[in-house]
Amino acid sequence: MGPQSRRTFLTNSGVILTLPVFSSLLPRSAEAAEVAPSRKKFVGVFSPSGALMSQNVAGFTDNGNWTFEGALKPIVTNGLQSKVMILRGIQSPSGAVDTHWANTAGFLSCAPILLGAQRPIRCGKSFDQFVAEKNVSPVGSVHVGWKPMNRNFSGDHATYSDRYLDWISWRAPDRPNANFYSASDLGGKLFSSSMKGAKVVRSLHRSRKSVLDLVLQELGAVNRKLSTADQARLQAYTDGVRETELAITRDLASEERRAACVAPSADADADLYIRHFRTMHKMIAQALKCDLISCATIMYDDGVGDEHLLHPQATKDHHGYAHHKNEAGAQAELNVINTRHASLFTHFLQEMSVAGQMEDSLVLWGSNMSDGNLHTTDNLPMVLAGGGSDLKFGSEVGSPQRRIAKADLFLEMSELFGLGLSKFGEGEFLSTGAKLGLKL
Amino acid sequence: MRKLGVSIQIWALIVSLPILFQNCSAGMIGFKSDVVKSLQTTNANSISQKKESVHVKNLSRFELAALARDILGESALDLSLVKLLPADTKVGGFDSGADSSFDISQIQARLKFAEAVAERALRSKEIFSCAVPEVPDATWTGCLRTITLRFAEVAFRRPVTADEEAKFFQIFMARHKDVVADLNAEPKSVPVGHFDGVNEALQAQGWTFDPDWSSRAVEIHFYLDGVAGTGTFIGKTFSNSPRPDVIDHFLKQGQVLTGQHGFTFQLPVRLADGQAHQVYAHAVGGTNPLLGSITFQKASRTDTAVATYPLLNAPMGEAIKSVLTYILMTPQTQLKSLQWQTAIEDSARKNYELANRMSWFLRAGPPDATTYSLARDGRLTEDQVYREEVRRLLRTYSRDLSYQFAGQWFGFREFSLQEELSSLDQDMITESKLVFSEILNQNLGADAIIQPGFTFASAALASHYGLSGAAATGFSKMAQAQRGGVLSQGSLLRMTAPNQNTKPIVRGKWFQFNLLCRTIPSPSAELFQEIAKAQAAADPAWSVSRQLEEHRKAGPACAGCHQYMDPLGLALESYGPDGRVRVTYADGKPVETAGFLDSQAFQNASELASLVLQREDFKSCVARKVLSHSLPQALDASDDETIAALTKAKYTVRDLFEVIATSKSFRQMGED
Predict the structure, then answer these.
(1) The pLDDT of residue B66
(2) Helix (H) / strand (E) containing B535
(3) Residue range(s) defining the domain that contains residue B242
(4) What are phi and psi of B439, to 5 degrees?
(5) Structural domain of residue A120, as residue ranges?
(6) What is the C-alpha to C-alpha distance for residues B267 and B224, in angstroms, rounded to an integer?
(7) Which of A67, A173, B489, B509 gives a 20 to 30 Å CA spacing to B545?
(8) Taking the mean position of all CA atoms in its chain, how far away is CA B548?
(9) Which of A233, A251, A267, A373 to mutate to test the interface with B (most CBs of B within 10 A)?
(10) Does the beta-carbon distance from A121 to B87 stay under 8 Å?
(11) How far apart are CA A190 and CA B131, in angstroms?
(12) What is the pTM of this model?
């Protein structure tokens, strides 16, 4: 039995998900005996360019505090305050690398990004992926966004890859998870087996699988002597094709289970941007409920925030308002955008609650910087949502005066998931072991 | 700021240190100075070759779209195909040496692209110029073989081997068997559809699909003067033509359809006899439902060309689609070089490698039929043949080259991908494309990039610019001193003014990077305290020019970069965000354009343009861009000598392409 058929056999027996194919996916050895984890599902939610931090608080000058009275108001008005805690004092290093790029790619990874026009992209394995590997599910994780960053001309940030602005999830340091930008694509991925026309999808999957299998054979047969660099290119193509083929195999193998999970109806809000994300929220909540996935990430925009639809009367993009220069008018506009994102986040929590998913999930919402005007990264705007009586939901946790590395937050959260990690992050982003104190 | 129609985002582009300009590209592997030698000696043979280089680049998304265009025999690039794929990495500002990261999303996107092209091929009468049988021919001869081999030869850009062909056949047979089994295994569902009518060309038209399997072709049978069983059978067809309205209709009802659902059937000409006839259409499947009947009475039939589509039943169609998708996903298609392939003899390889390399460089596409046949005959490596071929490509494909080369350099290619472009935007893109291709056609020097002395405009664009004399339709070449140069092209001015706000710093930075090949480092996070101070001190009542000036005074950290960017951007403030000339802002304040380029003073954009023309670094930058576009790797310091020689020789833009393409090092690139 060759390697191919062994893989197929394992697929059929449902073992495929734990079979290491890439060294990067090898299971990590558990470092300590854990109590039964209280959380199994994780969703990371991202908004770019920070927040207006000192809103509506008279005399408040310390940069870096958003409150339930300000942009977070929709959480309160919808009665979800008891499911949410505001995290204070979380910080990320602000080195020489532009934080738009560094802390978008590193939002859930806490690892530095590699720069240089010709280098491969690299960050670090993100928190959601540790959770997804521990809590195996047919699809694993899904990732959604608004649209990818697409800049017209070169010259600005020439050594940066713009892809760092598009992704917050990394299953390995060199393997980002791309977003779904269309609700129908996400629906197809998650719910096609339960939809009318499932036979088409199955047939298409089989066709794709056989095409990719044969491409792999073709790649395997290359025997010409090549330079190391050329071999690496061919290997990269081979790996990509193999991973894609595996994903299809996984979809086929889990068809029966997926067929029982019915797609939610699309949202009908008149605003395209709102409708897009509300539909995505519903799908993610449903997929979590069906145990099709254990993790998701949601990016309300790319890491710069060049979207204008956020605010109906906007004349600038989000990024333009984030650089408000302390002008009251621009700050008010930014507040509108922050509030809009808070409303979306609230909608997601509502969907999670209706689906009964809050109790064993944690949902983290935050940004790549705190003050978008100055690109600061101390006291980041962060909220953590979920259920259960063991954590300090309904309150503010931490203090702006006591800085805690973002990686320490993830390390503390990892205990709740029983991930058995002794550290999180890399380089200057690495965890120190300090605790914010999430538990009561 | 909004009122001024200008926004100054000083903080977005600040750098931490007084600036040291770098070269345009910092890279790994150098193009040896052999171009210089080939310039100095006509027979150019004293060249050492790079030993460790990367050849296995992949086709970029634009290159894949160009390949698809040639495979499908279409005349223009289909940007909707380009948009299926993520943006490629660029080396030295160009994606001609793309090293795309082959993650799942990239491969999935390429797979979707391949399926879309295969799907389109299935509807092409050009490709299916012969009749496909209803069941596979076990000996793999005839129509299918011809179609597949032709498709693969264009995709692989070299002859297809017998082994490869055997694989195509194997895939075809396996997939055909699977689809037949699928169709037999599933309980037959009842197709839905409608018989819309009979047109003037005596064609019966309508739509139908299998609700459980919308992508498979449904067979439709036609009967005369009665339903199946009573009427006379007159023929059959398959649902195989696009009906986007049907897809839309069902999408609104929550059902996603894939595949083609329209049908067209040519009724016998004898029925155009002035008598009334009734035709019945049945879809085959389940209960073989009647899709409708149409009564018509026609005395004649117009012979106007109505689109017809190849007839492929479900298993044949699906099986061919899989073969074509496979061909497009093979490394032979996806990877640019032939270097790694063993399917081709070394002696023949040289010819095909050269055909590929020159074609990607000079026509931004795979070898055309002429280049390909020269390679096949082994003649392309003959010096005179090759040189003439270089000239022919430059003559024939100047517009393609303009779009891919100048379009990437000046940004209008990416601009053309933006959603919701207005027709004026499209005209601006066409203007940019035509101006550069005219610079090539007329064999003009680098100066023409800045001051061509002409532009191309549609009536709408000319009116927008305030020019008179454009023809009512199409684009006219207009003698024109103020327009046509890249700095006054609408496409650039629009792109550098997002949200109807001009951004002088962005324009200044663009200018430095693209016309003088100077890289201004990106800002570092530490500088933001400086910015905060500068912001606090700024008075909103100041003019744009004053705001920028005050900011430069804020300290050497700011001035270090901004002295190079701001004045250039300010000169271009005389063009509003829509590309029109303006002398005042919306609030009535005058536009101030005076400044300095390094130490040389200018009063306005026109004087700035004249200053640029006198500069060696502009000329060398043009050479650098062309050289960069020709290579799969970034330039490095070892290329400086080449660039200096190219600059010194004062080549026209077209000659730069020709000299590089005919240099020995380009011709022998990657050879062992």
Answers:
(1) 97
(2) helix B528-537
(3) 192-304
(4) -60, -40
(5) 40-193+263-429
(6) 10
(7) B489
(8) 38
(9) A233
(10) no
(11) 40
(12) 0.82
